Amino acid sequence: MSKTESDRLFEEYLDQNDAIFGYEYEPNLEGRREPDYLVKSKYGEVICEVKGIGETEFAKTLKTHRIAFFDEKSELNPIRNKIHDSADQFREYQELQLPCVAIISNPKKISVELESEEVLQSMFGNKESIFKIDKSGNEPPQFKYYSYGRDGKLTNHHRYISAVAILDVYMMANEIWQIIFDEEKKKTEPLKDAWEKAIELLNRYTQEIRQNKGIDVNKKEFRLRVYHNYLTTIPLTPNIFSCQNDECWIIDKETTSFVESNKDTNINNNVRKEVKTWLEGL
């Protein structure tokens, strides 16, 4: 099959990190269907299916109807559908005992939320609040923690999927501007003035970081956000996808919540800290 735009973006991510990765496109793994990629690194091999977000059912309905109903299911189905499609490809490779990762991207900028909460709910179920109830009725219910329901794509099925990953394509300059703008909104009114001030400070910061550190914040960057499936029978080694921009999300067994395990070393988080420090020093 011909490569999709999402395939090409994933290859660009791999090529940018060619010191870490090697890969085969549509490798022959003695299955009935060829997966999209076999990614190789010193930490092992990973089978990857790459899926791009397409037009949603909600958007299609709006083309033919003046009113469309949007709920949590509508929000999460685009991600859940891609996990399901990937699972169909992975199923016949379980015997190889290789980690399988569903890579999801949004090259056409379809209006779909791909943030951590949406991804995790798509994987493990809609978020639920857990309360402690006093049986005597003398005390009000006490909130204990958040949990996930039983309607996630990986809660009861597809235990051979090791992780779901979101491939982001962005410019660091855009993220830096957002950090500056968020800070300026707190002290500058009207909003238009905060906007213009943020642009002015972004240009200043961009010049300084290029001169002092040789960093070009206007070039295209890739970030792979990897959400590990704690229910899988074939776990993914966290080190495999750990390039300088990447994020690795794993479950904290004490709180049963997901945490970014490489937050202290992730270059994007370090840049955010540096920008805020720079603003404080002005």
Structure characterization notes:
It is a single chain. The protein has 282 residues and is of the alpha/beta class. It has one domain (5-170, 219-265). Helices cover 35% and strands 23% of the residues. The protein is built from seven helices and ten strands. The chain has helices at residues 5-16, 57-64, 72-90, 116-124, 172-185, 191-213, 267-280, and strands at 22-25, 37-41, 44-52, 100-105, 127-132, 142-148, 163-171, 220-228, 247-252, 257-260. Helix 3 crosses helix 4, helix 5 (172-185) packs across helix 6 and helix 5 packs across helix 7.
Question: What is the secondary structure topology, with strand pairs?
Answer:
Blueprint: H1 5-16, E1 22-25, E2 37-41, E3 44-52, H2 57-64, H3 72-90, E4 100-105, H4 116-124, E5 127-132, E6 142-148, E7 163-171, H5 172-185, H6 191-213, E8 220-228, E9 247-252, E10 257-260, H7 267-280
Parallel strand pairs: 3-4, 4-7, 8-9
Antiparallel strand pairs: 1-2, 2-3, 5-6, 7-8, 9-10
Helix pairs in contact: 3-4, 5-6, 5-7
Name some characteristics of this structure.
alpha/beta; 8-stranded mixed β-sheet; two-stranded antiparallel ribbon; 7 helices
Number of helices: 7
Report how far the terminal alpha carbons are from each other: 54 Å
Give the total of beta strands: 10
Shape: globular
Question: Fraction of residues in helices?
Answer: 25-40%
- Helix-strand topology string: HEEEHHEHEEEHHEEEH
The major pleated sheet works out as: 8 strands, mixed
Uncertain runs are none
What's the gyration radius in Å? 21 Å
Q: How much of the polypeptide forms β-strand, as a percent range?
A: 15-25%
Based on secondary structure, the structural category is alpha/beta
Quaternary arrangement of the chains shown?
A: single chain
- Nearest-integer average pLDDT: 84
Major β-sheet strand ordering: 1-2-3-4-7-8-9-10
**Could you say how many structural domains there are in total?**
1
